[in-house]
Design goal:
By secondary structure, the chain is of the alpha/beta class. Helices cover 33% and strands 16% of the residues. Helix 4 (152-160) packs across helix 6 (199-208). The two termini are 33 Å apart.
Length: 344
């Protein structure tokens, strides 16, 4: 699990910056951001979300409009408490301090509870922030809602204000394999981890709404492997921020386990959220280095399976992601940040 910051563990740096700036870059990025992004993740859980968060914050091609700390399942092995969204927000504040980012006004707390049914939203500050951003009329910059955990806050927002369905694109890391595209891994959870956080919320998004949806299912986010050598040499070696990321991951990868040891890799499964928004092609902008299919959005069943709906709205299902571009960009941005933070 991601360690919950305490007064003893809080970190800050002497240099600071705000969203919209990129002072760590020797050469400034040209032009304005090409997209707005709302980040939603369960930051009290698997530390892969910390890599995604920092990578997104260091990507000037997108404008981060909100960072939502969302909940885990109560009793989850990463963090079993009933206040996981509250703890997620504390972790995000700690991350901002570690990288010198002062724009804490974008951090908002999601619901600590899943949906009780498919018709009743769970109110939270996150729901209000989603609706406010989606309904803005002073910009035509496209808005992406990128989620690496459950979908409670997004589902609650669309239940509260259905008009947002026409105003954003959802990029979600989660859901079971599609039977005609991939098989589940050996001994797989019957319902994929992020989906299991709130199945009803995902059903609202897939089945009950008109939201534009790009899905990165389990077989695809499992492609996002980095080796321990890469984490040691390309992350931990890039100063205090990189060492923080590595140490959070090492809590899991180096843990004592019964039986054979784990392979020396880790899945940074939330990183496609950066790839598919900040790292789109410049010419004829799209996620051109990754592969996807377009198909009618299926109905999502209680057991995580899909039922075809030939007349439903189209969705993207990603089948391959460009891990070279995604990880090399992250490694280099961490190096740039460290060089700037370590300059007197």
């Amino acid at each position: 699990m991601t360690r919950i910051p305490t007064d003893e563990h809080r970190s800050s740096v002497s240099r600071s910056w705000s969203l919209g700036e990129s002072p760590w870059q020797d050469l400034p990025s040209p032009g304005a951001a090409a997209a707005r992004v709302i980040i939603d993740n369960d930051f009290a859980g698997d530390p892969d979300d910390l890599y995604q968060l920092i990578h997104h914050l260091l990507s000037p091609g997108v404008e981060i409009r909100a960072v939502i700390g969302s909940h885990l399942r109560e009793g989850d092995g990463f963090y079993p408490g009933a206040d996981s969204a509250t703890q997620a927000v504390a972790i995000v504040h700690d991350v901002f301090a570690r990288i010198g980012l002062t724009s804490t006004e974008v951090i908002v707390e999601g619901s600590n509870l899943p949906l009780g049914d498919r018709a009743t939203p769970q109110p939270s500050p996150a729901v209000d922030a989603i609706i406010t951003e989606a309904l803005r009329t002073d910009t035509d910059t496209p808005l992406y809602y990128v989620a690496g955990g459950g979908l409670t806050d997004l589902a609650s927002a669309v239940l509260t204000e259905p008009r947002i369905s026409e105003r954003l694109t959802v990029v979600w890391i989660g859901g079971n394999e599609h039977d005609d595209l991939a098989l589940p891994p050996p001994d797989a959870m019957p319902i994929e981890y992020n989906l299991l956080i709130d199945v009803r919320a995902a059903q609202v998004v897939f089945t009950d709404s008109e939201l534009v949806l790009w899905q990165v299912p389990r077989d695809v986010y499992r492609q996002c492997l980095v080796s321990d050598a890469e984490l040691r040499r390309r992350v931990a070696a890039t100063g205090p921020v990189g060492r923080y990321l590595y140490d959070e991951t090492a809590v899991i990868t180096h843990a004592d386990r019964p039986g054979p040891g784990a392979p020396e890799t880790y899945a940074l499964g939330d990183s496609p959220l950066v790839l598919l928004t900040a790292l789109r092609s410049h010419f004829e902008a799209d996620t051109s280095s990754s592969r996807h299919l377009v198909r009618p959005t299926p109905a999502l069943e209680d057991d995580g399976s899909y039922t075809a709906r030939p007349d439903a709205r189209p969705m993207r299902v990603y089948t391959q992601v460009d891990t070279r571009l995604m990880f090399e960009d992250m490694f280099l941005k961490l190096q740039e940040l460290d060089a700037w933070l370590s300059t007197p």
